[in-house]
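[job 4471] stage=fold_predict status=RUNNING
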Amino acid sequence: MLEEFATALYMADGPTVSFFGFPYPTRMALVRLSDGGVWVWSPIALTPELADAVDAIGPVRHIVSPNKIHHLFLKEWATRWPDALLYAPPGLAKRRPDLHFHADLGDEPDAAWAADIEQTIFCGSIAMTEVAFFHRSSRTAILCDLVQRHDPAQMKGLKGMLMRADGLVGEHGSTPREWRASFLRRGRARAARARVLAWAPERLLIAHGECASENATQILTRALAWM
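[job 4471] inference complete, writing C-alpha cells
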C-alpha cells in the first residue's frame, strides 16, 4: 500500500469516499525528514498493514491536514501515534474540537520541518483555504484539492459527465469551478501561486487523480492559470 514516490517521499492510496455523492479516491503522503522523523500529509484510513509500513520508515512525529475537509482519519492516526503532533489548516480546529491540535499551519513552514519542506497558503476564498507544500530534496509539489486529475476511465455516467464539466478529469484537470468562483479576492492566491511556481517543482503529488513524475511546473502553470 505504501510506495516510494521519490527519495524520502512516499504515498499510499486509500479507499474511495463519497463527497456530496461523488466518488473521490483518497491518497496520502509521508516524508522521512532529515532528523529521521516522519511527516504525514492528509492521512487515509489506517490499516494494520499500513501502520507497519509507516513504522518501518520511522517514528511519526507530525500529522498535517492540508485543508478543512481532509480530516476524516486524523483521530485514528493520532490514537495510533499519540506522541505525534497534529497541525490544522485554517478552519479545521473549529470543525474538530474533539482533536487537540499542536498548532495552526501558517504561510511559513514549522521549524520542525523547515529544512525539508516549504509551504504556502492559498487564501482569498470564502469557502476554503488550502496549504500547499514542497518537498525540497525531491522537488515535489504536494497539493490536495486545488488540482484534481481524476482517471477518465473511472468517470462514467452523469457523475462522470459533471466531473468533466467541472474541469477535474485527465491531464488537464484543475480546480473545481465552484471553488474558483469562491475566490472573491485573488491577490493572495496569486501570490501563493507565484511562490509555488518559483519553487520550480519537477514532480507533482496530489490527493485526487494522476500524479506526475516530471513537468510539474508546466502542469501547475496551466492548472492554476484561472487565478
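[job 4471] summary: The chain has seven helices and eleven strands.
[job 4471] exit 0
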